Records
---
Amino acid sequence: MKFVDYYKILGIDKTANDKDIKKAYRKLARKYHPDLNPDNKEAEKKFKEINEANEVLSNPENRKKYDTYGKDWKHSDAFEKAKQQQQSQQRSRSYSATGGSYSEQDFSDFFESMFGGSRSYSKQRSRQFKGQDFNAELHLNLKDVYQSHKQVLTVNGTKIRLTIPAGIADGQIIKIKGKGGKGVNGGPNGDLYIKFNIKNTTKFKRDGNNLYTSVALDLYTALLGGEITVDTFKGKVKLKIAPETTQGTKVKLKGKGFPVYKKEGVFGDLIITYTIKMPTKLSKNEIELFKELQKIRSNG
Amino acid sequence: MDKPDLILIETICFHYKIEISFIKDLENIGLIKLVTFENNKFIHQDKISDLEKMIRLHHELNVNIEGIDVVFNLLQQQLKLKEEVNALKNKLQFYKNN
């Protein structure tokens, strides 16, 4: 457990009076409040730290205790005093199973060791706090998000039934209200934020609601036109190829793209780029005929 | 008439220990929409989460009504920008893969 300097956290001097503490706390709270920093874990951590510092320093009794033992807690005498004092206050919890060795512990442990447990301390105050927001990641394939589907997630031991709307984007975050940590002192529960990581292993590239793919045409179909069958995300469709179609020609299949998020029955487009496949391993006869064609072209 | 999605503002004020004038001020500035039915004012339950946020900003950070309006506008802009960044990242990935 490392020593936590509450004065440093609030950016105030040890001689600061109640007004200075309140002012410093308010200023930092305005900066790091979770409502003003959605999805910002760093700000959330900082907000907890400044709240903890304020809880201690704004209470004269606790501030005195902190000022007396906090600084030298690592050095046994003063610390033992603090420990004995806390034991005499009939703390229900022992420090640790290792008989009071204070090794790798975190910020809240420091708070609890000095002030007898944040939970019991909080009970003395009627202030309510929203529970912690949870963040989770969900990995899906592109095919999974083509249609809305239900999925059951287990977050911190709680099963949550979730409907994932079709067309959700890679990296998109959705909020599930009240499924985060439990609120403190009857405060509201935190929220659950789920980030979607969508892996695309299909031959289609996705950009927003549109899908892109390329289709190879043989030389003769490209030159003379014809009909081909192409794959879309939903299945196969027949397409007419115009005569003299050139390399890189794009066609748009309206409504054959990806579903638009939360707009049922609305789809983006599928954009197909044609590539021309040149014939190889020509027979003698084919070479002759191509030469003939070449002559016609150069004379014509 | 049954109104399962609407919550009476007096209930809200009792639950969150706030003055009714606070709710009315929020309505006047356009931050919340109230529904009037048989001389009673209600708020839609979908808007409770926003209202809770406004109450927290007001009580925990001493932000006044105009300040809350500014904060909400900025948060909306932030959300819009985040979505834009996300869309651009996906677009960039698309061109990187090509």
Note: Residues 90-106, 117-126 of chain A have pLDDT under 50 and may be disordered.
---
Amino acid sequence: MWTSPEAVIAILGMALVTFVIKAGGLLLANRLPQHGFAAAWLKHIPGAVLASLVAPALVTGSAAEVIAAAVTTLVYVTTRSLFPAMAGGVLAVYLARLWLAA
Amino acid sequence: MSDAATPRFSDPFFAGARACIPVVISVAAYGVVWGVLARGAGVSLLEVIMMSGLVFAGSAQFVALDLWTTTPATLPIGPLILAALIINLRYLLLTATLRPLFRPGQQVKGALTMFIVSDETWAITLGAMAKGRGTAAFLLGGGVLAYTTWLATAVIGHTLGSAIDDPRSYGLDFAFTATFLVLLLGMWKGKGDVIPWLVAALAAIVTAKMIPGSWYILIGGMVGSLAGAIADKVRHVD
């Protein structure tokens, strides 16, 4: 399967809103709040969205996911790089599932 | 009339590309991971090329994979676009700071150049601007390097992904959560992040239990970021 009309519409829509925002920031530069409530709100959005993605996955998962999340965090804080942290997390969840199933 | 900044286009262009090499290595790592996960989520190679080539926004593309469905009829088009809009809203603040790179008469050129801006190249360009070396060509140089790397590594990742038949049996389903967790940890700026992240997490957990679908991502994100802004305001007033 190459693609579908639905996927093309979704991707073009995502591309359009992303470009409009990026260009909008430049064009509206003199009218946008650089400080204050609205600026603080915009600044906090990405972190809040990512926290929303992670939290339910950890709560609904087994103890294996929680252990693996702790390992991922530990490796990332130590190495500051994506690959070792992700590999550590995946390995931890694999071993923890074997251990919990035993 | 700043002749010093515009003798040749290629000098600042390649200077920008060179300055962005360290962050582009990280872009490459995320690109491969995104490609592998995209294949796992049922995104075709053509769709990977279209999304990385046209949307070109890392966090939004990772979130899109979480919403993606393999059957076109159930693809949540509205939520996909809405999620991209909300996650990318922060670019309003980022690209606004690049205004000094363009003269008042260069609005169209400037707006078109913004397509190639990403968090990484924005940060490097802003650093160069502080030292007087940041120009539109510098930004474009870093941007083109990051863009081609992101596109190429996503294709590589999607191709590598075919070697994995059942992700769950190797624990690879956790790669998603691990990547989101790493993206989140990388955004840590200090104690001001505790309240928005905690409120977002709680709101998302409650919403996920009550409302079917992926609304918990948007609801958690909006409630958490508002809580963060309110907390910031309270702290500054006191």
Note: Chain B touches chain A through 95 residues (CB under 8 Å).
